[in-house]
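pipeline/complex-builder :: batch 7 item 3
reading input block
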Amino acid sequence: MIAVNLHIRGGRLIDPANGIDAHLDLYLKHGRVFAVGEKPDGFRIDKTISARGKIVCPGLIDLGVHLREPGEEHKGTICSEAEAAARGGITTLICMPNTDPVIDTPAVWELIRRRAKACGNARVLAIGALTKDLTGKQLAEMGALKQAGCVAVSNARKRMANTLVTRHALEYARTFDLPVILCSEDPHLKDGGCVHEGSIATRLGLPGIPSAAETVAVARDLALTEHTDSRSHFHALSTGRAIEMIRQARRGGARLSADVAIHQLFLLDTDVDGFSANCHVDPPFRTQTDRDILRQAVADGDIEVICSDHQPHEEDAKTAPFPLTAPGISGLETLLPLCLKLVEDGILDLPTAIARLTHGPAQALGLPLGRLDAGHSADICIFDPDHIWTLHPAGLHSSGKNTPFCNWEFRGKVTHTLFEGRITWNSES
Amino acid sequence: MSIEQLQTDEHGRLRHFLSIEGFRREQLLQILDTAESFAMLPGRQVKKVPLLRGKIITNLFFENSTRTRTTFELAAKLLSADVINFNIDVSATSKGETLLDTLRNIEAMHSDMFVVRHSASGAAHFIARHAAPGVSIINAGDGCHAHPTQAMLDMFTIRRYKGDFTPLRIAIVGDVQHSRVARSQIMALNILGVSEVRVIAPRTLLPADVRTLGVHVFHDLEQGLKDVDVVIMLRLQHERMDNALLPSAHEYFQLYGLTAERLEYAKPDAIVMHPGPINRGVEITSEVADGPQSVILQQVSYGIAIRMAVMSMALGNSSGEQGS
């Protein structure tokens, strides 16, 4: 498809990577940003998008989504989820390796890459497996995965056989300067738990996951990060104590980054009350103290990435007694709206919120994305910050309708998404 | 929908009995009063009453239990209901049929009530939310969450022996962490306004933030038993030793086993209860279990009256006068 020359006119451009927050026009050519501000001489405009009253920002980068294809197409496909991403202003999906088969060989990644290219609604990048079949025993062929284009490696939430394997995996990944996405969790302390261990778990008789399941593992992984000089990225943290440890390790000079799933900045363990299966997430919703520390860390920059931790499920997966339901939230289409709620609530300013969704993840993984200076890919999200709407699960475009944010009122809605200069979503057409 | 809304109709009448949580004192007393009308008089059997004639009650047990299922079955039969028993091997359901599929299949047989036991906490709530309108759900135990009829028969026993709840001190001894019975008992006792509920156990057998349930915590059995009116012993499962929660049954008995000497710390007229089945020599000596203060067997027979009360109330006919 040949991209036309586009002019995005009259919007408030927020490009945190370049420190821009101003009313500036954008000129796009050949799928890239051609100029910012003044129209370059001789630039032929094929099409103009009016962004008056709207925010124009880099397309969002969602670190650590579960695309379900191959293997679990009944939960979602690359196409269905990429389309949902476009509606949510997301232009880059960085997918976890826990597909079936696992992304532990270039062949599986190649299959995903081709499928994503055919769908064309978003860039799909892969996190390769840290160990073969994610069993935590033998190292995956990380050298080949890197060559094939995987941008990081991870063992997802699958347990590692032991600390020595983790050490070697981090060291081997470091050989190729591959970032390692760590989902730090002690499987023994987790022990079949499904909610935060605390008064709610006690009252409902649900098996709890203590905060220590995360902090013990984060402490171990921080020590190994330091020892191996790994490029570690801590994914989907849930406890305040883990944030404090990461902050301290940073002060000591460790090279690491961290993210939090957007739903952890809103919901608490108490939301599980009444056995609400849509609030079954892993790691679990924790206490208000934890949430407040997470929010503060996102504001301060100790957490530089907010992700959706998108996990679409078919209805059946959530239709069972609480402990038997699958954990996870379909989050692509609520990522930006919830972040805007943080802005509305005064937790973050708008440029910071956008930075956590664009420049933050790009930096964490060293990707030349999430910025709109000339020459960069024209991945753009345009949203109307004043549009008020209510979420109905049926209105979600993802195959997964599993959201706890049903009937929440949001302010701010994506009107246009451009991926490589092509309009992949236009709410006005 | 909140738990309260789920359990009663718009007039506050019982629809489902899923957990003690959400009921008011008067509602629990009403269940006890109704059970009283069914309860056995000394030396006399409960008469069969025609209250639920024509109703079909299905026992839906996803977890083995001969004892509880039998008392529900007997209660239903004494109310003249027809009873169907489904013992569903959980391993079979894990081979593909979802709980909802199972439910729909059995619903097609037109039951008026499901008595449900399941190993997952929240299973009874789940079934209540998904059952056809007009079908009542009685929770016969879900995971570690609730076992409300057991708690109510314990309340019934306590009231029979002690009368007023308000001055009472109650001690619950043992594995509170894994006990749905203990959770329901603690809630019922607090709603009924007892003076104090104590739990006595090593830390490994107490859930996180257990105080938030409204209990005082003791780790020393003798201290905890001091001046209590009621001692409730919980069953100790042998797998607790395998999970490194306890070193041995021997040490548990040494520290938390109820012996005649230890019972002396309680009030002289204290009663000893146990939801059964008891492990003699693990949590309780035979001397105490069979002794004059033990009301363990009475609990079992009162269980039938309580289940008759709950079933008849939930199916909209509780005029139990004929039963007495």
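note: Confidence is low (pLDDT under 50) at residues 319-324 of chain B.
queue -> next item
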